[in-house]
Amino acid sequence: TQLLEQSPQFLSIQEGENLTVYCNSSSVFSSLQWYRQEPGEGPVLLVTVVTGGEVKKLKRLTFQFGDARKDSSLHITAAQPGDTGLYLCAGPWRGGGADGLTFGKGTHLIIQP
Amino acid sequence: EPEVTQTPSHQVTQMGQEVILRCVPISNHLYFYWYRQILGQKVEFLVSFYNNEISEKSEIFDDQFSVERPDGSNFTLKIRSTKLEDSAMYFCASSVAGDLNEQFFGPGTRLTVL
Fold this sequence. Notes:
The structure holds 2 protein chains of 2 kinds. In chain A, strand 4 and strand 5 form a beta hairpin. Chain A is an all-beta fold. In chain A, strands 2, 4, 5, 9, 10 and 11 form a 6-stranded mixed sheet that branches.
C-alpha cells in the first residue's frame, strides 16, 4: 500500500488569509485526488491531477501535482469561513488503474471570521 | 445530479450478529468500492468490485466480509459475525472507469457494534 502524508494536520487562520496544505509520498502516483469531508459525511471529490507539474484551479483553490508525481499541494487564496473542513488527498492504492484509494489523514482547516 | 446512496444511515447491532449494508451506486458507473473510517482515523480501502467480481481487496477485508451485486442497482457489504472493532463509518463509492480513479462517495452508514 502506498502511503500519503498530509501536513499540517490542523490549521486555523483568519478569514482573508492565504494558506497552503501539502500531501507527500515516497511513491509515484499515476494520479492524485483531493477530497473535502464534512463531519458525518462522505468525502466529496474536488479535483484530480494526473500530469507531473499540473496546476488546476477551482475558484480560490489551486491544486498542484509535483513534477515527480510524488506530492501535491492545495493553496487557498483569501480563505472564507465556508472553506472550513477536512481536506483529504488520495491516490490509487497500488499505484494505478481501477484501484481502491489510499487516503492521507487529512488537514483539518478552520477559517475564523 | 446523480449521487451514491446508502442505507441505513445508522445501524446498531450486537456483537456476533450479521449485518448487511446497502448502496446504490451511480447508474452508469462500472466500478464499486467499500471503505471504512474508524472514528478519528483515516479512510481505509476495503474492496473494489468490477464485472460482478472482486478486483482488489485490502488485508482488512477478511473472511467475515463479503460483497454482492444482487441486482442491477444495489451493491451490498455483508459482515458475517460483527466484532466491537467493526464499529466505523462505512462508505460506498463508485466510478465510471479505471485510470483516473475519480470516485464518488455515498453519505456512509454508521455501524455501531455493542
